[in-house]
Every structure is written in C-alpha cells, then in structure tokens.
Amino acid sequence: MEASRSGQEAAAGGRWGALGPVGLVLAGGVSVQFGGAIAVSVMPKAGALGIVTLRLVFAALVLMIVCRPRLRGHSRADWGTVVAFGVAMAGMNGLFYQSVARIPMGPAVTLEVLGPLALSVFASRRAVNLVWAGLALCGVFLLGGGGGFSGLDPVGVAFALGAGVMWATYIVFSARTGRRFPQADGLALAMVVAAVLFMPLGLIESGEKLVRPEVLGLGAAVAVMSSVLPYTLELLALRRLPASTFAIMMSLEPALAAVAGFLVLNQALSVNEALAISLVIAASMGAVRTQVGRGRGRKAGGVVSGGTPEAVVADAVDGTNSVDAVERVPESSGK
Fold first, then answer.
1. What DSSP line would sit under 66-135, residue for residue?
2. For residue range 104-139, what is the model confidence (pLDDT) as tens digits?
3. b/e per residue 224-255 (b: at least 16 CB within 10 A)
4. pLDDT for 317-334, tens place per residue?
5. DSSP 162-184
6. Helix/strand/coil for 334
C-alpha cells in the first residue's frame, strides 16, 4: 500500500511539477478563496451551515478514498488528538462561513488571520513581534473605518474573530496529529470527525435542500476547490519549498480572498479596507519570518528544508524542536 501511495504521489508530482513549488502554492491559495466565493454564492440555496456540511462530507469522502488511513493500531491519545483536530476544523469552517455570509470575504479572512498571527507572536516571544502585533492592530483599526466596526456587521466580525481562534487551535492540533499519523491519514480521519459533527447542524438548517442536484454539485465543487485540491498542491509544493517562503505565500490569503470576492461576488473594497488588509498581510509575513528564523537558529546551523508554518509555530508552542515533525504535518487550508 505504501509503495502504491509513493507511486501515486510521484505521478502527481510529474503532472503538476511544471508549475513549480511557488506556482503550486499560489494555485492552492487561489483555489481555496475562489472555492469560498462559490460557497457564498450557494448559501442562499443551502444556508451557511448546509454548505459547510456538504464541503466537509465531500472532502472527507475524497480524502478517505485517496488516503485509505489505517484504523487499527492507534492509541487512545492518538484518537483524542484526531477528535480535537476534527472539532477545531469543524469550528473553524462553521464560524468562517457564518462570517462571510454577513461581511465581505477580504475583511473576513483578514480578521481570521489574526488568530494564527497571535499564535505566532505568542510562540516567538521576541520583542520584534510587538512591531508585527502593532501593525496588525493598525490594520484592524482601519478595517473598522478608523473607529469601531460600524461599517461591518458586528456579528460577522465576531464570527470571523472566532474562526481565527479556531484556526489557531487547528494549527496546534494539526502539528500534533502530523506527529502521530503518517502521510495525510490524520487529516482524513479528522475531516470525518468534522463532517459527522456538522451533519446534524446542516440537516436542521437546510433539510432536503442539501440533496437537490444543483446544491450537491456545487457543494462537491466547493469541497474540491477549498479542501482537496489545495491540500494536494501544497503537499507537493512543500517537498521542494522552504518553510519561510511557504509561510509568506500563505500570508497572502486575505488579498486572494479580496480578489475572489470582487470577481465572483462583486465585493469591492474601500481604500481603508485595502490598506488594512495590506497591513495585516505585512504583519503576518513579518511574524512568520521571525518565527521561522528562530526555528532555524535553534538547529545549530541546520536548515529546515520543508514543512509548514503551522508546524513551525506549533512546535514552538509545544516546546518541541523536530525537523521530522515539521515535515510530517498534514497541511490543509481550513477555509
């Protein structure tokens, strides 16, 4: 089975390798955000909870078929970690989609990114990160129109901030799951947990709407664009891309969300909102670069050649320092 997986990964690498690792990450980010924009357009037909349910269910089915994770031989602690990872994934997706049902995608993703940014600042414990935190706060101030959030639905803002908290939690348990499960097995199992948890909510809100052919088709498209395809592209890219470069590109998510919102949903940004997003992106880039540089410095001259920014930050939070752990984290864009 492992040989078969290696062969499949090599074939996938050959098909997508022409894009280059940077192109793969960029394509994954574009896929995530345009998948999110499509999800917003489907919400009037299926509801926010309904579209999250469809996304998680379809993504779980695809990942279980592709990964074929081993169910036996895991400890109680292993399963506890997977369940916690799945709960964080469900919460992150549910809160984010409730947010974009009320406020534009660009501001929603910008507010959500504050969760990982705060985790990165906390993990680093370096004075320079106060600069990045201050820069992010300036962005948040501008995002609220220069005073409060009168220009944005306060409930949508609260959901976005809650999604950011769950994203930070997702990062920590993503790293722990990656250390306990090979390949993407832990991710596939956590996706099943998230789908099972969310299914009752989707059924209560949307009921029979979820089985309409057009809704099912769009739900499957959202799952592929927002979960399956980005995960595949990023996994391939991380085999050849330094963690610092990957982290910087992931920091561009708010800008990609703003573009997707404008092109698909006609959500134009004000000057203040555009500047706010730029400040938060700059803060995110700076904080992650600081954290990655600190991680490299602890290697006594070694270089972390691969892995995700989530793993770098989560290892710092956990107090670990393992290159192998970094390389095994199952990266998946949560939105």
1. HH----SS--HHHHHHHHHHHHHHHHHHHHHHHHHTTS-HHHHHHHHHHHHHHHHHHHH--THHHHHHHH
2. 888 888 888 888 878 777 766 677 777 877 887 787
3. bbbbbbbbbbbbbbbeebbbbebbbbbbbbbb
4. 554 443 333 333 344 445
5. HHHHHHHHHHHHHHHHHHHSSTT
6. coil
